[in-house]
Structure formats: C-alpha cells, structure tokens
Amino acid sequence: MGKSDWNENIKIIKEKITSIDLDAVSDPSLNYDLDEMEVIGDWIFSAAVPYDAPKQLKKNVLAALKAVGGNYQSIDYVLKRFGDIWVFPDPPEEKEIFYRILRELKQEIESIINSISSYKSVYLGERLARNALVRLKASFRSSTLLISQGYFFEPTAICRLILEQIAWAYSIYEINDKEKISNLKPTKAISKLKKLVRYSGSLYGTLNIVTHIDPEYDHDYSFETEDGIIFINYTIPDKIFLVLYFLLINADIFRIASEYIFRYYDISLRSWEKNKKGEMILVKDRPLNKEIKLVSKKLFKD
Prior knowledge:
Blueprint: H1 3-18, H2 22-25, E1 37-41, E2 46-50, H3 55-69, H4 75-82, H5 93-116, H6 124-134, H7 136-148, H8 153-172, H9 178-182, H10 190-196, H11 200-211, H12 218-221, E3 222-224, E4 230-232, H13 240-261, E5 272-274, E6 280-282, H14 289-299
Antiparallel strand pairs: 1-2, 3-4, 5-6
C-alpha cells in the first residue's frame, strides 16, 4: 500500500467516524438497554429479553422460538408440551443491585453530557475539550455492555481510556493554540488532573496494573491441569463489581472536571460550590456517592 492509498484510507475512516450518530448508540425511549438483557433460546434461534421479565414472558418467547425452529404450527402447543420443564430462576439479589446501580450510572452520564453539549465554546481548546467529553458517552456505554457480560480486563482498559480523555480535556480547555494541543498526550495530562481531583492519580495507577494483566490476576482467568492443559476464562463474573467501582469513580471525576471546565457558563453545579471568598470547592454529597459507597462496602467489607 502506497502512502497516498494510506492517506486516502485514513480520510475515509475519519469521515466515517465523524458521521456516527451518538444518539443512535442508545435509545433513551426504550425501557431496557442491551446491557440489561438476558439471552434465551437454543442452537437455532435466540432472543434477548429483560433480565427481570416475568417468567411467563420468557416462556412465551422461548416457545415462539422453539415453534419456528421446530416447525411447529402452534406456540400454545409448544408451551403445553414443554413449558413445565423450562425453569427460569429469579435474579439473585446481587444482580438486582448491579443493574440498579448500572441504571443510575447511565442516567448520570446522560445528565452530564446534556449539561455541557449545548454551549458554543469561544476557545479552540474549550471546544475540543467539550467534544472529547461528550463522545465519552460511547466509551461509558461500551464499558457497561462489557461489564454486564462478565468481562473484566476489557472494560477496565476502557476505564483507563475514559480517565485519559477527561485528563486531556481538562489540560487543554484554556489553550487556544492548535500545535500546543496536538503535542499534549492524554497520558501526560493525568498529573494536571491530579491537582483538580487528587484520587485520579491512584485510580490511573490501579487501572494500569489491571489493564496490563498483573500476574496477581493470573489465577482468576487461567487454570492448568496436571497434564499441562491450560484453560482460559474469558469472563470473570465475580469481578464485575470491581469494574463497576472503577466506572463509578470515573463518572464522579467526569462530572467534577466537566463542571469545572464549563463553570463560567449557565451550568447547574452539583459537584462544586463557592465559599465566601468566591473560591470553588468540592461538595461531599455528589451524585453517585451513595452508589460508590454501596459498591465500596461490598468490595472492601473485610
């Protein structure tokens, strides 16, 4: 491939990226999102239903799939013949808690993005910072989808990406020089974000350790038999609350940084308040604090 071909391909890719409709990624009018679905069916057909849907609804959907796959004329016939042997257990309490927190998280991200996306920025850095923050909607959504499927390392890597983008946006929002902005790398911006949000540095360090698959986690995803056969677990469901914790902290930092960057606009501040001197100070009772404490208690109860 020649240089001209490569440049042309890059141009096409950029055009495709800029044409993505973020609103099409998630439809807020739907009562359930993809990460709240349970897949049922067999080797012929399958369908997604809400994880907490009534058991009869799940049976009806499964009967419809079986009727089509088995070439039965009547769904009722399939239900009468097989319905009694299909068992759908109630969702465990932990799953209920997980999905409730996931919903709170997604609503918070939507709230932040709605509050910053409508302003016409004056500075180049401010405009680029806003765009970078708004597009994080897709990153947060990718993480929730992966977490809901029990993945651990992959959503953690996206959490690190999210934190880097927040840091980059905070580092450039006051810069009006394109070259200076281009030379600033997201990973180098973390140190500046630490001055605004002290715990962002420790979070970034933890995400780096997990993302690079520290040997400490080897026993979580691999198993070797006495014959030397290695089995790999691609998902680690018992780690979903840990990744959810990372994502909740990221969402907290997301709001803190976004509100600070756009503090001079008509934006409702929920993470900051002004003291008597007019200085910006963080408030303790921020959105998602209750959810962060709940997940923290589950993770670090010992």
